[in-house]
Design goal:
Number of strands: 18
Largest sheet: 7 strands, antiparallel
Strand order of the largest sheet: 15-12-14-13-17-18-16
Number of helices: 17
Strand content: 15-25%
Radius of gyration: 24 Å
Distance between the termini: 26 Å
Structural class: alpha+beta
Helix content: 25-40%
Length: 491
């Protein structure tokens, strides 16, 4: 027997021993090695990364997970946490070694709403849309929404510090999380769920885990902030000439209506037409052609509800007089308002069905967004003339989703060839202008090398130091978010 064969036999024996102990710990509902059950969760949402796993664990609560993590430490088994598997950067996909355990949080789906405190405690596997429904039943709302609300989980949103369409008024997930329950890399349960308004006992530890993509601890529950239900809203679709006009319209609405402006989304005609063609029965809000479109939402609580409609109409009339947009339609009812929003939320799936694309989730200071996009478009037109550039997203917070579509005759390896060259150019421009290569989707494995190339070396070193201190064995989501020290290889 050769040394290599002996090593393989030893690894197989260790895997079997771990699998047997995990099955005894979690039972049939909590652990499986059935390939048909696991297979759908081994590829990321965009279909760019596919890995292997020695099994899939689905613990029911923090206590079961704690025992499981201790078992993983005992056997040296890496853990890849996964919620709804709706991420965009391969952050919840294991590598191809088959050594890692895929950890599903989907059984941790309890939601409890406290209407008096305006808070909700959610298991990590709770679906965002279910939280919306639970809050609405108590005449409250959770003011974060995104296109994947039917599959995205609260744990995933916390781990990636998700944003969405209401950041302009309510902020990203970091602003909405009041407390966390986390299982640490050694299996200890860290209870940070007390939502104290004032707590000066040192570091705000929950912030370490928000946006850490499961590399420092595994979120099992979160206490989140709720807001009063919207008593009245106005959703408006406008047609504009360019992003500069959209920026001026945004500033006008903020000046005239302040906190009533809930969302401000922009999309070009190309994205708009792709969605119209993709959605059965979709009706264009405006009959005329426009280079750019902006979707606005204004909201008011009970006290301001009676006057919201008049205030919005006066605001838009003044903007029209100033030439800030060319045409507009105000949703006549809730059905039409939701139809307007669906046109925005279906951009990603519509484009996915339309053509292959490399997608960039970038941000710069909001005032610089129109100019940055112009610079990117000019650079790509010169260097990649057969590629189509499309940009849409959250102009109010400087976050634009920039998609570059592959040409019809693109090679099979385009995603990891020419697309990488496109992304490198985009990220260099954004970084040179003081922006971020990831506004809300995270780093995962997709942007790991780019982060090391573009981020402040001192910041990277601090990230490594924290990772090594908290997870010295490197078992939590290896190969994601935190670049290893130069010369080291991800395992």
């Amino acid at each position: 027997m050769t040394d290599e064969t002996g090593i393989l036999a030893r690894d197989e024996n260790m895997t079997e021993a771990f699998a047997n102990e995990a099955a005894a710990l979690l039972g049939d509902k909590g652990f499986t090695r059935d390939s048909d059950t696991i297979e759908p969760w081994l590829t990321d949402w965009r279909g760019r990364y596919t890995g292997k796993a020695l099994g899939m664990a689905s613990p029911a609560d923090a206590q079961e997970l704690s025992a499981l993590v201790k078992l993983c430490v005992k056997h040296g088994v890496p853990i890849v946490p996964q919620g709804g598997n709706s991420g965009m950067v391969g952050g919840a996909t294991p590598d191809k070694s088959g050594r890692a355990l895929l950890l599903s949080t989907r059984r941790m789906d309890v939601i409890s709403v406290d209407p008096e405190a305006r808070e909700a405690k959610c298991g990590a596997g709770a679906i965002l849309e279910h939280l919306h429904d639970a809050a609405e039943a108590k005449n409250l709302r959770f003011p974060l929404s995104l296109g994947g609300k039917g599959s995205a989980t609260i744990g995933g949103l916390v781990s990636t510090n998700a944003g969405g369409t209401q950041v302009l008024r309510h902020g990203v997930m970091r602003s909405l999380v009041l407390g966390l329950e986390v299982v640490m890399p050694d299996g200890a349960i860290l209870d940070l769920t007390s939502p104290l308004k004032k707590d000066n006992r040192g570091f705000d530890l929950k912030q370490i885990f928000i946006g850490s993509e499961g590399t420092l601890g595994i979120v099992t529950a979160a206490v989140v902030k709720l807001s009063p239900a919207i008593a009245e809203r106005r959703v408006v679709w406008t047609g504009l000439g360019d992003l500069h006009a959209a920026r001026r319209l945004l500033l006008h609405c903020e000046r005239e209506l302040g906190g009533a402006l809930e969302g401000f989304e922009v999309l070009p005609e190309s994205c708009y037409r792709t969605v119209i063609d993709y959605l059965p029965g979709a009706k264009p809000p405006l009959e005329s052609h426009h280079v750019w479109h902006a979707l606005l939402e204004f909201a008011a609580d009970q006290e301001q509800a009676a006057t919201l409609g008049d205030r919005v109409e006066r605001c838009l009339a003044a903007a029209m007089e100033e030439g800030l947009f060319d045409d507009a339609a105000i949703a006549a009812n809730e059905t039409q308002a939701e139809a307007f929003w669906q046109l925005r939320e279906m951009i990603a799936p519509a484009e996915r069905a339309h053509a292959r694309a490399v997608q960039h989730d970038i941000s710069v200071p909001p005032a610089d967004m129109p100019e940055t996009l112009s610079v990117i478009e000019d650079a790509l037109a010169q260097e990649f003339p057969d590629h189509e550039v499309r940009a849409f997203g959250h102009l109010g917070d400087g976050n634009i989703h920039l998609h570059v579509l592959a040409p019809a005759n693109a090679a099979d390896d385009w995603d990891f060839g020419k697309a990488k060259e496109v992304s490198a150019r985009v990220y260099r421009i954004v970084s040179d202008r003081g922006g971020s290569i990831s506004a809300e989707h995270g780093i995962g494995q997709d942007k790991l090398a780019t982060l090391e190339e573009t981020h402040d070396p001192a910041a990277l070193e601090l990230m490594r130091t924290i990772k090594e201190a908290v997870d010295p064995a490197g078992l939590l989501n290896p190969g994601k978010l935190v670049p290893l020290a130069r010369g080291e290889a991800n395992t």
